[in-house]
Fold this protein.
Amino acid sequence: MLNKKSNSGIFSSILLVSAVLFWGCGDQMKKEELTLQSTCPPGMELVNGECKVRSMYQQYESLQNGGLGGLKTGLPPGIKDGYSPEQIDLGRYLFFDPLLSSTNKVSCASCHQPNAGFSDGKRFSQGVDSQTTSRSTPTLWNMAFSKHFFWDARASSMEEQVLGPLYHEHEMANTEKGLLEKLNNNSTYRDLFKIAFPENIENSITPNQVYTSLAAFESSLISLNSRYDQYAHGYHEALDSIEIAGLNVFRSFVARCAECHTPPLFTNRQIAVIGTMDTENRPFDRGAGVTFKDSTMDGGFKVPTLRNIERTAPYMHDGKFATLKEAVTFYTLGRGHAVPDSLDLKLHWHIWEPQLKEKEIDQIVAFLKTLTDETFLPQIPKKLPSGLPLN
Ligand code: HEC
Ligand code: HEC
């Protein structure tokens, strides 16, 4: 494919795939060249062919269990990175491509929209044929640090998680066979997968390659560079006095937010029963109680990160709060106030009655808005390997 005589030096490391895409009708045809990046996304460094996350927080000592999260607490061990640049870039195409759904109409990005904090602004999302999901779409920022996936923690790796939306009838409603057939029938994808998985001896795309690529892309969505982070690293002017007051209430032993939403990830990566249900309009969601077959975890959900929280309304697993202020106010209305008498939940002992004043709630909200950082937003592909329109 490469022209040795003129290009060998410059282009030997650049992998190009010619893709012929057909647009519109008649004989109108555009020839496009799709490439896979051979460099890591920003915020990552190429080490022995693998993209590794680089953050100031890696300079700080981490307490084994995350501690209570002082400003200079390090990142927890066990980050899932180390995919090749090509795998990450292939994952990016897959993420945006509605070819992955049974109807060719729904992509991962239909619900995890980059311009909406990788969520979609809705209480419940719409999958194929306008079927709605039963929980609100969570953000994908900093997924690489997660131990559990889904609100109820039912998956324990990014690769395992991906099976959920791909094959769920309310999301992309595909089957493994259907998905592989579509990808294998597409010569551009076949070429791109060969580049991303050069060691593969089989001649066709395998399920694991699809899951690995999507996980690889997710691993590159890192957000650790907000105004709060500048403050944490020592630049005190990054926050104003109201935001600093908010940080202090957030960390206080009255509000106790930081004990679950522990910096720097703003989650302790655990599951907690906090009693945020909307049983008036919906059946009780047992959440982690089902996953762990343990009724003491009924109503338990993954402690979500609060990174980019300003961008991902509405809030909680059922999207019951439209604004950040409502979500924060929930905590001060009293332990278990939203739990109907008919339910006996084992609420986490850090959920109490902090009796925050209106001013303190506003300060917390102001602080939460300093956690916005979308510098490493990935590029949205201009064209997809399938030739389908972006949706
Ligand atoms: C129809 C909307 C929809 C589509 C399409 C969709 N998701 Fe999701 N996603 C959700 C919802 C809703 C949840 C939460 C489900 C739950 O917790 O039970 C979720 C959860 C996740 C999570 C777990 C997040 C966490 O905090 O644990 C990841 C990762 C994810 N999706 C990635 C993807 C990828 C990759 C694709 C494409 C293959 C995709 N999603 C397609 C709606 C969608
Ligand atoms: C005992 C652990 C715990 C404590 C303490 C705690 N949270 Fe939470 N937080 C959670 C869990 C679990 C959820 C998800 C609950 C759900 O979806 O039903 C959550 C959800 C949230 C959300 C919505 C996130 C989203 O993506 O929808 C916000 C905002 C929030 N918490 C802020 C706070 C603030 C502010 C405080 C302190 C006043 C606080 N939390 C204290 C565990 C905790």
In short: Residues 227-371 form a domain with the Cytochrome Bc1 Complex; Chain D, domain 2 fold (CATH 1.10.760.10). Residues 207-219 form the longest helix (13 residues). The chain is about 30% helix and 10% strand.
